[in-house]
Every structure is written in C-alpha cells, then in structure tokens.
Amino acid sequence: MAELAIPIVKKKLNGYVGFHNLPNQVHRKSVKKGFQFTIMVAGESGLGKSTLINTLFNTALYPSKENVELTNETPKTIDIQTISTDIEENGVQLKLTVIDTPGFGDFVNNEDCWRPILSNIEARFDAYLEQENRVNRKRIVDSRVHACLYFIAPTGHSLKPLDLEFMRRLTHRVNLIPVIAKSDILTEDEIRGFKQRILEDLHLNKIQIFQPPSYGNDDPETVQENKEIMARIPFAVVGSDREVESNGKKVRGRKYPWGVIEVDNEEHCDFVKLRQMLIRTHMEELKDYTNEVLYENYRSQKLAAAAGGAGGAGGELPGDSLLANPLSKFEEEKLAHDAKMAKMEAEMKAVFQQKVAEKENKLKVSEEELYARHREMKEALEKQRLELENKKARLEGRPGTPEKIKKNKGLFK
Ligand code: GDP
Fold first, then answer.
1. Complex ipTM, two decimals?
2. What is the mean pLDDT of the chain?
C-alpha cells in the first residue's frame, strides 16, 4: 500500500519549550552508559600490530617488543587472541576490545589464512543475532568487530596476492582500514607511489575500504576534516610506545642516526589522522556502518538461507549472494510463508478431527446407557404385569399359565 505523504509544516515557537536540551540528554546518557569498541588487527607477523595498538590507545595492552631482535624463536600470535580493557579519559569510559589475529606467513599453507578470521567475525555476528532472537533482549552484549586494521608490508611495490585475497574475503563483513606498516623505512616519494598503487589494486579488485561518509548538512569544518582524512588513506603509520628526545623534548617516536621520526607529528606520518578517524571523529560511524550495513546484510542472508535451506551466509564470497538476486530472496520468503500456512492448516484439521471423534465416542456411550436403562424399565414393567396376572388368577381360583409361571420364575432368578 502506498504510504500517505504527511505534509510537514514549519512552525515558529511562541515561547520556551526546552527540547534544545535533547542533545545534552543523549550526551549524559551515553557518558553514563559508557562506550564500547572492538577493533581487529590483521596482517603479516612482525609488522608492528601490537606496537601500533599500544600507541593508539596510549597504554601497554601488549608487552613491548621494542629492542627485541626478531628471530624465528620470537613468540608469534598463532591463535586469535582477544584483549578487553576499560579505559577512561576525562570521565568517559571506553570498553576497548582488541582482537589480534595470527600473522600471515606463519603457516605451511597461507592461502586460507583469511578463513579463521572471517569465521571469527561471523561467529560474533551469530552471537548478536542469537541474542536478538531471545525473548529477553534487555542485556544484549555487542562483541561485533567494528573495524579491522589491515597491515600492509612496507615493500613500496604493490599489494601481494595474499593481501588482496584477504581483503576481498573480508570486505563485506568488516570495515577494512588498510595501513602501511613501519612507514619510517620508506621515503616520502616511495610512500606516495605505494599509496597510489594500493588504491588502484583495491579499485581493480572491487575491494571496499572504510571511508568517512559525507552528509549534505555537514558543516565546513567537518567537510575539511573528512577531506584531509581521505587524502591520507591508506594511512602510512609509525608505531612506538617509547619516548625519545627530539629538539630537547620527549616525544613518542623512533630514533635514527639521521634524526627522529615522531609518531604524533602529522608531517612525519599519518598516525594522527588514523587515530583521529578511528577514535576522535568516526568511531560511531564505524559502529553504525557495522550495525546497519554489514550486520544487516549478514543477518538477511542468514535468514534467507535458513528459510530456503540452501546456501548459507558464508558462501563463496561473503555478501555477493545477497546482492546478486533480491527477487529470489523474496520468492524464498514467500515459499517459506506458504509452507508455514500449510503446516498450520494441517495441524488445525488434525485437532478438529480429534475433537469430532471424542464427541462421537461420548454420544455412543450415552446412547448405549439409554438403551440399557430402557431395557431395564421394560423388564421391570413386564415383571410387574406377570405378578399382577398371577395374583388375579389366584384370586379367581385358577392356576397361572405354565409359560407365565416359568417366565415369572425366570425373572426371579
Ligand atoms: P606484530 O607481530 O605485528 O604484533 O609486531 P610488533 O608490534 O610485535 O613489532 C615487531 C617489531 O617491529 C618490534 O621490534 C617493534 O619494535 C618493531 N616496530 C613496531 N612498529 C614499528 C614501526 O613503525 N617502525 C619500525 N621501524 N619498527 C617497528
């Protein structure tokens, strides 16, 4: 049915109402509730994933491996590890969950290295879906992954087939944020060329990465901020959870014989812009996109697969099957609905037939009781009649008829 358009009339208020305070109410409620954010890091081992997480949140979530020479014996992440922590800044609580994934290149067969990571992301969607379907949905725990930082080795050439395969598999399930790891070992020119080739590869392979969305009513400052962030993607980052001395000041950075690379200096690397997007300006956007687009796609695929009994949310390439044929999804839903109706009708028929059989049985029993009572009454009357006839015969001085006497005796037995 077509929706009726309700005309919106703009009215001027005659006096104070107070709803200008609504944003403050939301603000107070959010601060009280606290925030939560789940971030995943992925890429080859030894690219500085743990260091960058420590640098981003300015806390030692992972033990520092600074000055530890990397050898084959250096412990590597071989399972998916999750670290949850509560951090606070100016009274605002953030429950931060970091998911560290096994570094690629650590396995005999690296082709399927994306598989356990994709399964982990989908298992988190499943857990959320299961909670949503419960009768009591009051305390839903959201463990869905809101962003995945994908670390690209600073080769300066282009993306490796493994990088492309990983991102192609995950692009429909998570907000991908590619970063060029350890960019301090590349020159500015090398970084510029590398970024260009990475963006071309992503475009050619139809890999969608997270980009700050722009809205029509954005103020000029936000538009400018977004532009500056976009210009830096993929972010060339440097991580360091140590302070070094630069021009007499203590800064977070990496010291070289030729000078210091400062992590928090926008002229030295893109770390500040990455942190700005992830934490300061776009955390809520990342969460909204996860909830409204990535999770919704997964959820509808999963439900369609359950109704049709075929396929599954984790098809060849996640996300593709849903986008491919919306009509067949509609048909699947219709078939499922028809099947449900037919089942309900059959159940109702069975109940009705059972009720009719019970009633018929009851009627039969009471009919038999009626017959038995009728027979009893008839026999009692016949007995009375014979007695009276015998009495009459005795009074008249003649014996009762032999049959009648016999019958009479039989009745007394
Ligand atoms: P992960 O295995 O990816 O988690 O890597 P780690 O964070 O453990 O870092 C591996 C090594 O790289 C450590 O020795 C770090 O000090 C070093 N490292 C981390 N980030 C950087 C960086 O931005 N530049 C350079 N040159 N080295 C880094």
1. 0.98
2. 83
